[in-house]
Amino acid sequence: MLEIDQLSKSYGKVVALDGLTFDVRPGEIFGFVGSNGAGKTTAMRIMLGVLAADAGMVRWNGAELDLHTRRTVGYMPEERGLYPKMKVAEQLRYLAGLHGMSPAGAAAAVDHWTDLLGVGPRREDSVDKLSLGNQQRVQLAAALVHDPVLLVLDEPFSGLDPLAVDVMSGVLRERAAAGVPVIFSSHQLDLVERLCDRVGILRSGRMQALGTIDELRTTDRPQWTLSVPDPAAVVLALTGRGIAARNGEDGRTVVVGTRDGDDGLAELDDQAVLQMALTAGPVHEFTRVRPTLADLFRDVVSAAEAPPEEAKHPARRGLFGRRAAA
Amino acid sequence: MSIVWAVARREIKARMLTRANIVSMAVIVGLIAIGTGVGWFFQHRDSAPATTHIALSSETAPLGPVLAALATTQGVTLETPAMTAEQATASFATPTDATPDAFLDGSPASPTMLVQSAADPTVLDMVTSAVRTYTLDTEVSALGGDPASVAAALAAAVPTVTAAHPPTAALDGAQYGVAMVMVALLFGALIGTGSMISMGVVEEKTSRVVEILLSTIRPSQLLAGKILGVGVYGLFQVLVLGSASAGAAAVLGAGNVLKVSLGASLIWLVVWFLLGYAIFALLFGGFAALVSRQEDIGSVTTPLVMLLLVPFYTTMFLVPNDPQSTLVRVLSIVPIFAPFMLPVRSALGAVQGWELALGLAVTIAVIPGLVWLAARVYRRGVLHTGGKLALREALRSGS
Q1: What is the pLDDT of residue B167?
Q2: Cβ-based contacts of A92 with chain B (< 8 Å)
Q3: I need a labelling partner for B224 at 20 to 30 A (CA). Which of A47, A118, B114, B204 fits?
Q4: E strands of chain B, at which residues?
Q5: What predicted TM-score, i.e. pTM, was given to this entire model?
Q6: Which residue has the higher pLDDT, B177 or A70?
């Protein structure tokens, strides 16, 4: 298990990490999400020891993650890096060797991963002759080639075509199934939602939301979408009873409730809402709306960008509390 | 250690086994070989020693030993075939390779000398001296003396010359040449390997591969491997070019003329290259980590190139002028000067054992300090991106 314990890091006056704490369990794919500058890359670089934390510790199976253990980690840095003039296979064999693999084992692993990632035919080309997408695949191979016991990937999907995304997703799932904890950062939230067992949303160096996708999407502020022939009538009927309702974007639906909870629904359950709507006409569909990861992400970010809003919703402070220091 | 060697092996492969490098090394060695061949040709074109033939009749035969002795002292190859007057006349009538330069007939004390058209002045001088010596010997014998002791007394009758102000022992052309080749080889190898290391360090930073490397290995292992690998390349270069130069010098005879031991000079060249390399590779490697882009590399390497140029020029101008002057002797124990001055002075035989030992000791003593400095600067700088990191900054910060 990978434990991130109270990591703090400042660049001069800029606080990058502020007591960041979470863990990644064996066989788990952990999605690391946050806006640009939230501290994801800093956290990953500290995990890999290329950056020193001001405070806190990274532990692997209970012991500090030291250089010896780090040799067994697969890392893909945010800024991709390979020797441009070195041949693909030679380069991967070299990196595998630095991770402690035998020459024969390295050669077999290089063949395996380059074939799997679709760059097998380019093994004898130098890296700078490859397209950016293929360079990216080689970079992934570099992170995977030494059969790592932990994968730390900073934006592994950026720049990949849909086919490569599928291959990469498959590889991550397969590695996780083999018991390897996988942590990756991404801005492609649909992908994170689809792939990850757990997600952490980072803002200003703190973990603002952490849990499985289901846990995060479960909210005590329900919303519903109603499919009705006459949305205007339904909206009128509901708002007339103090319930927040608005026309859906496609003109045939009504959205009931708001995500911030100030919607008059506090005492009402789904059957009560449905009955109210039925008084205004027929209802063809009645669906509970759950926030997407993108919605949750926006909440986290907007909580930072619009601090006065926060005061109105003390119930949320626990989850989306603002840091004292700017 | 196996990691350091893995890094070094990659460097060797990436630097040494490139087509450009192999071609350029082959071209340089080829040029040295061609130059040697041309030099050898000109050296030997005129020097095939011509044999002087002075034919003697039975009457002038007693001049033979005298002529032979003269020929030995004058360094002339002489043959004195016996001929009759008829044979000589016939030979001059139809000249062949066997036709003598002169034929001596008649009394040995006043012989007639038959030549083709005109007497060769050296042949005439030789014959004149021989006849006089023969006459002198005959007269000394007639007076009851010993011609041998007279000859010995005459040989000893030369003045002994002592100069009140002898000129300083300036180097001759060959010595100067050996010194220049050594200095140029050292300078070229040190500046070549130094810039190779600094470019390698910055290349890893620019391509960002350093982050992958340093998630696996220590900065000190990466720097050590790089220095080791480029060092092997530099050593190979010095050995190949040094041996080619020494071979050229041997063929052209510089070693014999000079009493320069080419083998020992080559060994000192290699030893001092390795020591100089240790100093400059550490400086180039450590300081290059301060910048992140190839175009900024000059700002850190220029001062280091100056550090190489100063001892290079100082050695080139001071040592051939007087390899034992006080200034040269003092600079010879200063670490950046020693790798240039001491091997040249060793080659010229113008250095004392204790000076050499002191120079070696001082140079070796500063290397651990440079290792510390380079490792510190490199560790700070290598993951720093963006503009140039100030040296003061790199040396200050903790951890």
Answers
A1: 58
A2: none
A3: A47
A4: 51-56, 77-79, 102-105, 112-114
A5: 0.74
A6: A70
Is A82 in contact with B207 (Cβ distance < 8 A)? yes
Query: In 10 A of CB B147, how many CB atoms?
Result: 15
Task: Decide if B275 contacts B360 (C-beta within 8 A).
Answer: yes
Rounded distance, CA B138 to CA B140, Å?
6
**Between chains, do A51 and B14 touch, taking CB under 8 Å as contact?**
no
**Which residue in A273, A280, A271 sits closest to A230, CA to CA?**
A280
- Whether chain B has a CB inside 8 Å of the CB on A25: the answer is no
CB contact at 8 A, A94 and A142: no
A259 and chain B in contact, CB less than 8 A: no
CA B28 to CA B188: how far, in whole Å? 13
DSSP state of A87: B
Q: Look-up: residue for tokens 């350091």?
A: B4
Whether residues A83 and B399 touch (CB distance < 8 A) is answered with no
What are the distances in angstroms from CA A113 to CA A147, B6, B145, B215, B263?
A: 10, 22, 106, 20, 53
Which phi and psi angles does A227 have, rounded to 5°? -100, 115
Q: Please give the Cα distance from B293 to B207 (Å, whole number).
A: 10
A positions 54-93 inside 8 Å of B (CB): 67, 70-71, 73, 75, 77, 79-86
All residues at 6 or more sequence positions from A196 whose CB lies less than 8 Å from its CB, including other chains: A29, A30, A31, A213
pLDDT of B279-292, one tens digit each?
999 999 999 999 88
- The overall average pLDDT reported for chain B is 86
Q: According to the model, what pLDDT value does residue B395 have?
A: 76
CB contact under 8 A, B211 and A85: no
What phi, psi does B209 have (nearest 5°)? -65, -20
A326 lies within 8 A of chain B by CB: no
DSSP state of A281: S
| Gap between the Cα atoms of A19 and A41, Å rounded | 15
A127, A203, A205, B143 from A76: Cα distances, Å:
16, 22, 20, 111
Kindly determine whether residue A81 and residue B215, on different chains, have CB atoms separated by under 8 Å: no
Of A147, A148, A89, A101, the C-alpha closest to B3 is A101
Contact across the interface for A84 and B207, Cβ inside 8 Å: yes
Say if residues A293 and A192 touch (Cβ distance below 8 Å). Answer: yes
If DSSP codes are grouped into helix, strand and coil, which group holds residue A72? coil
pLDDT at B254: 59
Lowest mean pLDDT among A28-37, B48-57, B255-264: B255-264
Where residue B216 falls (left for φ over 0; alpha for ψ -120 to 50; beta otherwise) is alpha
Q: Which residue has the tokens 């590399």?
A: B297
Facing residue for A71 by CB, picked from B14, B207, B216: B216
Residue A318 has a pLDDT of 39
Interface touch A49/B217, C-beta < 8 Å: no
Chain segment B159-175, per-residue pLDDT in tens: 888 877 765 555 666 77
Q: What share of chain B is helix, strand, coil (3-state, %, to 5)?
A: 70, 5, 25
Q: What is residue B364's DSSP assignment?
A: H
Under an 8 A CB cutoff, do B14 and A83 touch? yes
What residues of chain B have any CB closer than 8 angstroms to a CB in chain A?
3, 6-7, 10, 14, 203-204, 207-218, 383, 399
Report H helices in B207-296: 209-214, 219-252, 254-258, 262-288
- Closest-CA distance of chain A to residue B211, Å: 7
pLDDT of residue B390 exceeding 90: no
Sign of CA dihedral A275, A277, A281, A284: negative
- B39 three-state secondary structure: helix
